Amino acid sequence: MKVSYNWLKEYLNLNVPADQLGEKIERTAVEVDSVTKHQDGLKKLVVGKVVSCEKHPNSDHLHVCQVDVNQDDLLQIVCGAPNVAAGEKVIVALPGSRIGNNVKIKRAKMRGVKSNGMLCGLDEVGFDRSVVPEKWLNGIYVFPDDAKVGKPIYHYLGMDDDLIDLDVTPNRGDMLSIYGTVHELAAIYDLKPDLNHPKVEENPKLNASDDISADVDKKIAPIYKLRVLKNVKIQPSPLWMQIRLWNADIRPVNNVVDITNYIMLKYGQPIQVYDLDKINNQKLLVRNARLNEKVETTDGDKVTLTDDDIVVADDQKPVALAGLTGLKGAEVDQNTKNIIFEAGVFSFVKVRKMAQRHSIHTGSSQRFERGVNHAGVNEALDAACEIEHRFTDADIEQGTVTASDIDAKPVNVDITLTRINRVLGLSLTMPEASNIFKRLGFGVEINDDQMSVSIPPRRWDIHIEADLFEEIARIYGYDNMPSTLPSGPTTIGKLTNKQKLIRRSRRILQDSGLTHAISYSLTTAKKANMFMMRKSYETKLKMPMTIDRSTLRMNLLSGLLDDVAYNQARGVDDVALYELGRVFYKDDEKQVRPNEVEHIAGVISGSLSIDTWNHKSKPVDFYQLKGIVDNYLDDLNLNGDIDYEATSDYPEMHPGRTANIYIHGHKIGFIGQIHPVIADKFNIKPTYAFELDLKTLIEMPKREQTADSVSKYPSISRDIAILVDKNVTNKEIVSAIQKRGGAFLNQVHLFDLYDGAHIPSGKKSMAYTLTYQDQHDTLQNEVVDKSMKKIQRDLKQQFNVTIR
């Protein structure tokens, strides 16, 4: 919001430069984007009077003007504006002047006729076309008669006023008004504001309730008030009001519409105006819109409404989008004689959703979304009536039609001086602390160390003790607060066990060739329900920005597959990614907050290696990814055996190439190939993936790491090849070997698997290397031979193997 420095000084005795004032506001209240003047960069622009205006001899649209600028001679200026005429007082850019966009004006010839300067429109001297009144939009600007010839134009157009552009945060909606900013500056500089209050002169012969009535849904309009004025004369607003508006980036329209915008700027209370004679049945309703109800705004935008929108309507049609903008049907025009001023408070939630839904963001919606002063609605409404009466001598009908109202009362918050000083690190006395509250306009009652602070409704952002701490700190001055070191016992900074494991996880997977990826936590409902490791209800956003980001994820893999698709679509065929992140589960559909669970997942598509002169890369397979997962889990020192069991529980995974992962009987995740149908939907090449419950891994007991010395005695290796049924797993064979291998069996390694030619049907050949070693003595062959006989005998008995 752009705040006029001259407007502020009407209510406060400010004696500081505008740039210093802006810096003070930024240090104390809200951010200030800039402090500027419209005249910055302009020079040699004066008021001139067109003495004569004749048609250009060589042009149909140009005029040759003789212009008085209070110099010895008249200036001859060629002008193409359609509204130039003799007797007008206009903006003159003298030779050598600078106008908008740093354009320099020189003496020139226009179709053979000398031109010593330029007659300018408002947009040509730096005003944005969006704020130029339509009367002057396609021509030059004409001053009122009291403008003095030869004087600089800046004061007449408000261009010498400093404009402080406030970037108001959502919690400080009170500063979206001149009065709110005045109250804030009065507290900062310990000044007393001199505010004016409207004095309404009502016509006792006219009663507003005879001409209009209102019916509202109090849930969507807790405050709703109307006032009626008759015999209004539609005309341009006085120049001082137009200046106030265009300096605030608002286009002046007429004396009725301009008043509503002026009141909004001054009080922060949006005002809507209707033509009384266009209201059917003399009744206004505030209601929910009907589904697919079609309306057209006064700006010509056509809008299709939903049943969650709110409108102001008469018996036949909507006349306004409540809290946003007016609609065609009851708008004020040049023929308007009788008007209704409307002021109220609408549901900030519905206004915000409606503005976002239809992309209609206005000054009114901005204020309703951040809140308005419930205690100031009447005053703003009366002020609008009083100004209109002053402008056009319109009749203000007696009484205010009130459809709903709230008794806005101050909020009381108790606080102690001891706690103020302890929290802020200050040493304030009771008079100093209470004086700060009084400067803010708060009431204070003191009882020993305790203060009962009464906050007026205009500061609706203050409710609790912490809010008062902030107010004390702001007004006291952050720069004035003492610097102190943190107190308390010192401790050695270190990582928690969880942090250590997460960092180790990153290191292990990165060392394995995977790259860390970060995916969105929000996804579609369909993707959120993929790769589910447990049953859960969806967590949906009430107002998602897009349908692609509407649901909290319940897996990491769908996001990683999106990343794979993104890379492969751009020619990167070999993709290996992992992600550490949270998934969100709900055990009950009515559960408000989902449970956040840490997961870790990885995907590999293509190959992990590249072709070299002596090595040909191969596409990744199940066992390569299993090796990476094995290495990761082994490095975590989990206290328990790692088991893989084939599963078809996941419809998104290949049913013959997927396994659940268990540690000591506890399921911690799954691994396998992405189902070809799912891969086609993601438009990716064959991909293998895993996802683990990292929270469970963190909580599982860990083995203590111990170091064994390297044996100085040699080891003995023996090979054994067996013929066994195909349904017997490697795990079962290894388990049997380890059980009968004895104390010196150090390692069992499967080095060959064959089920081709010369192997009986239903059988497979498996070959193992068994390594024996004694840590304390030289191992004898007899000991190894005895162990091998036990192993062979046990394998024959348990699995009916044939030793080859």
Tell me what you see in this structure:
- With 804 residues, the chain is α+β, with helices and mostly antiparallel strands.
- The protein has 6 domains: 2-37 and 162-189, Phenylalanyl-tRNA Synthetase, Chain B, domain 1 (2-Layer Sandwich); 43-136, OB fold (Dihydrolipoamide Acetyltransferase, E2P); 202-404, Phenylalanyl-trna Synthetase, Chain B, domain 3 (Phenylalanyl-tRNA Synthetase, Chain B, domain 3, 3-Layer(bba) Sandwich); 411-480, 2-Layer Sandwich (Phenylalanyl-tRNA Synthetase, Chain B, domain 1); 497-699, 2-Layer Sandwich (BirA Bifunctional Protein, domain 2); 716-803, Ferrodoxin-fold anticodon-binding domain (Alpha-Beta Plaits), CATH 3.30.70.380.
- Helix content is 25%, strand content 28%.
- The chain has 19 helices and 40 strands.
- The strands form 10 sheets. A 7-stranded mixed beta sheet has the order 28-31-32-36-35-34-33. Strands 3, 4, 5, 6, 7 and 10 form a 6-stranded antiparallel beta sheet that branches. Strands 12, 14, 15, 22, 23 and 24 form a 6-stranded mixed beta sheet that branches.
- The longest helix has 19 residues, at 781-799.
- It is elongated, with a radius of gyration of 40 Å.
- It is found in: Cytoplasm.
- It holds the Pfam family tRNA_synthFbeta.
- InterPro entries: aa-tRNA-synth_II/BPL/LPL (IPR045864), B3/B4_tRNA-bd (IPR005146), DNA-bd_dom_put_sf (IPR009061), Fdx_antiC-bd (IPR005121), Fdx_antiC-bd_sf (IPR036690), NA-bd_OB-fold (IPR012340), Phe-tRNA-ligase_IIc_bsu (IPR045060), Phe-tRNA-ligase_IIc_bsu_bact (IPR004532).
- Residues 711-804 form the FDX-ACB domain.
- Its main location: cytoplasm.
